[in-house]
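Example (one chain per record):
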Amino acid sequence: MNPSQPEQLRPATRRRVAGDPLPSKTIRPRFEPADFFGHQPSSTASLPDPRPLVENLARCVIEILAGARDLEQIARWVSDDVYRHLLKRVVLSSRARQAKGQQVVRPSFSMGSARLCEPRDGVIEAVVVSRSRVRARAVAIRLEGLDGRWRATAINVL
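Predicted structure:
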């Protein structure tokens, strides 16, 4: 250090205090616990056929938004973010029905065949078209293989 340098330009040095461990003696964890105890990705080959799950999830989501089915019934197959998103949609559709004075009615609709694609191993993106007398809707679903089973990480009803 040059004593003629102004205080702002001097490099900051930390002095070792008695009791601080030496850098070579610092104990670091061998692994990150989240790597072993968080969700573990699964390959597509080790998972069951996703087509029945996609078709059933699409049917359930339409019925949930219509108020004819409880959101809790699909909670185990969706991620937390999807659950929160659907919960917001359920609350909004419930308020709209109450404002109009409509009763909850089980919707009558037919499901088209599911279109699936696999952008990478362990991920399936699908779309199912639902047709009723009044309208047609597309249900887009993204499934990811986590912990040996499929979980929906994105669901959008268009």
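Caption: The mean pLDDT is 87.
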